[in-house]
Fold each of these.
Amino acid sequence: MERYHSSRNIVYQIYPRSFKDTTGNGVGDIRGIISKLDYLADLGINTIWLSPVYKSPNDDNGYDIADYKAIQPEFGTMEDFEELVAEAKARGIGILMDLVINHTSDEHEWFQKALAGDPKYRDYYIIRKGKNGKLPNNWGNFFAECPWTKFGDSEDEYYLHLFSKKQPDLNWHNPAVLEEVKDILRFWLEKGVAGFRCDVINVIYKNSLENGRPKPILTGSEHYLSTEGCHEILRTLRKEVLEPYGAVTVGETVFVDVPKALDLCAPERKELDMVFSFEHMEVDQVIVKWFKTKLVPRKLMACLTKWQKALPWNAIYFENHDQPRFISRFADLGPYRREASKMMAGLLMTLRGTPFLYEGQEIGMENGDFKDLSEVMDIESHNVHAMAKSLHLPAGIRWKMIQRTSRDNARTPMQWTAGPNAGFTDGTPWLKVNGNHTEVNVEAELADPQGVRAFWKTMIALRKSNAVLAEGDFRSVYEGSKVYAFERSKDGKSFLILCNLSSKTARIPAAARAWKTLFLSSCDAPLQNELSPFEFRLLEN
Ligand code: ISL
């Protein structure tokens, strides 16, 4: 139990579709993950979060589950999965499953039975009559669709889906749904998984289906964000199912502010262990994520500090399968891909909380190099593009939106080698491999002791072995236009962390002078009074 809740945990997220293909079908698979476990163990991580590997028609790449107890055939078999758990365990690595319980696939047996008229399963979903020829309510949808779709052949009945129409929302007012989910959790816990990353967990329980206050996005969300019903479900699952197994949970919690996050993961509430908050992902957005401005480092620092101070412990991350690559967000990245990647490694490993890194981050992968919409596969990107078109946004702007923000930016195949398809597959990859793989790849990194991956490895080892970095208190020391300085301290020992979040050389702030000894720098030849572009530096007192 202790191990998985440990402050020394370092989590590595795998998007199985894009990690490593061993069959030549162009899609990553479980055997591919097994083949790379030594690589991951060597990096020093001790937990893997697997994006969904369950049977799915892939409308949303596995976030639309058709069978919670079966492995997606293109990823392999249940035996492969069991081998993965065992092989990972042998290397001291635990597996977190992705738990998607706001919705199922419309191809799930439950929804199919509901469509066939079985009243038991009809009540697993949210099905309502339209109102005077109109939709049941005015709610919005996460994927820029209408959230209501006609239920089967019905003339005037609709089912609710906050995501795609192939992802009908479950009815969490029905106790049978809770029982099904308990059973699913136990099924995977019995297989030895360490816990769950809980997809959009704070929206599962809808208080009512009343009209919402009209808003630019997600009208209606006040009726389902962090409801008391949701809190109660989380407490029940933890007490009755998760706790006996010592399982860990991290909730993906959309639109959480600090109080809402605390309500979900403050230890005394016994709900989730940690949450993924989004505010730091939104510092460069204008109203919605599709419109971005320049990333202003000071805004990012202020946001990080705010969350560091407010929560006793939390998940920390800069990348995942839904977000553009973080280094690609620096408008002035220029030739500093390696430097910025190292600096982000330093930052992630020295903030307080459980660090989550995403596949490819450890070698400094950048956004996909897509040339037009035909190269983009993600349903959200296509829906948003279509919506922008219907709003008569010019083609150039529409493409910019997708190019900069599409979730496929982070989903391009993992770059293992400089060879064909970056060594990801012998077949045709399901999503275009980034052309920069000839330069950015694991093979090259493994041969480079000064490389990005080597720095990640150093930082991971330090984070795991050092009590001050793992458990120490956090205090912001300086937030400038380029430099972020913060202190981590414990039992009279203290580190000062200096990050240059810009491509310009930056003066070391006066406030940093109390820390005299250079412990480590991401830069070969650190300067006396200045930080080099995107330098990360650790000082001791
Ligand atoms: O991409 C987003 C954040 O910028 C969101 O709109 C995202 O859809 C939301 O965070 C929910 O994400 C999760 O649930 C979705 C799935 O498509 C995402 O991949 C998953 O992370 C529906 O299951």
Note: The CA atoms of residues 182 and 240 lie 8 Å apart.
Amino acid sequence: MDIAVSSKKLGLKERYALMTRGLGWEPSYQSIDDIFPMDTFEGIMIHDWDAWEDPFRLTMDSYWKYQAEKERKLYAILDAFAQSNGHLTVSDPRYINTVKLFAAGLAPLEYMSHRGFAHVSRQFRGVAPRVACMMQSLDELRHAQTQVHAISNYNRYYNGMAEFRHYHDHLPYLQVARSFFEDAATGGPFEFVVAIGFAFEYVLTNLVFVPFISGAAYNGDMGAMTFGFSAQSDEARHMTLGLEVIKFILEQDPANVPIIQKWLNKWTWRGVRVITLVAMMQDYMLPKRVMSWAEAWEIYFEENCGALFRDLARYGIVMPPCVDQIRKERDHLSHMAWCQFYQARGTLNFQPWLPTPEEMDWLSAKYPDTFDRYYRPRFEYWAKLEAEGTPFESTSVPMQCQVCQIPMFFTEPDDPMTLAQRHSHYKDEQYHFCSDYCREIFDDEPEKYIQSLIGGHEVFKGNAFGPDCDPTAEGFDPAAAVLNFWRINPDRDNGHFSGSEDETNFNLWRGLAKTNS
Ligand code: FE
Ligand code: ZN
């Protein structure tokens, strides 16, 4: 018998359409502008929201299925790493400082990214970009959680991690990362997706993830390596979203091009300023090194992003002008940063050290034009002072740039012997910047950046004391009060790595694993 049976199951394509765009509706008793009040003030013109190409092509049920699968694998490895005392198998106890930097500097950014994408997934009037942003928001929440779980294994044994969230909000060096995301999240929804979805996820993410994750693998940190790989497959989707966002906006109206160009200029610069932390980690903090910052820049920026910007040229987009200065700073960045961290080791939640003679030879080979000339003599001098029992340490809190919030240690791009300082006047106040590009960002939106909360400046304003502090009391010790407010345990969380509790414990525990005593 031939009876025609109509299929009850929908095809993949129909099902996908119904479960994403099909979930939107035309409002009948509210105006669309009242429902989506935030997607017009930035000046971006969208004429056809349906022209959006969905980059994720995932429905919610398949999303949960894939992610659950990844979680099971990830947690199996994290458990195995914890149960076999994996923290004792890392290359060298100095490596654990990288984990501390990651905990307080990067994991909270995943959470801020989650919140930012959740916010914009409510703000676009096009349903398809809302769905894509919602999925990225869920990914970012998962990243924050898995990173904190992986790091919690170290937190049971080592200092400087337990208060990572508080550090993120208050330690001066961590304001660099925090202010980057707060700046993006307080822009409009289009600026947020260009800043985070495109500039950060598409242009810069490989410069952050690849060195950290291959660094973790090289140094025996299975936990960090696994969460890295687990996040990397989401990252591929995020990069697709970032690219789609930019192409969609550029194709909608030629008037969007100058707005996008301005954001690309700003966020490429802000992004590379934040990545100073990664450059330093790569060149100085990994006991077993993967590649130098300069090499990573060549591969992940010059090659990959060079091709990308050539592709965007047909819309009238050009490479951000700041790239010239970034190229000039390429061979200085990590060295300037590590010098600063070494001097300011009292204000950190991790413990720096001076590079060994072999490590300095590696740096000379990787940076033949700069290391021996400008930085080796400084490290050798500091090593001499340490050997004489009078180590150098900066006892003050440095001035930070009003925009990127990095201490003002950068030198002039064409003169590595002169510190760079820029200034702007606004409403009878003077503001300070590390560079022309940070000043340009400030001058474009001064009302925004005069509100920057700057960790180091808060100290001098008297805002970095706890509520029970009495600065007028006899014998008041402001430095101790500030450390207390920051929840930094002197010498356990901060200070020099050699001779620290973490170093002593690691060597003792590893010794127990290898000997009979
Ligand atoms: Fe993420
Ligand atoms: Zn700056």
Note: The first strand starts at residue 411 and ends at 412.
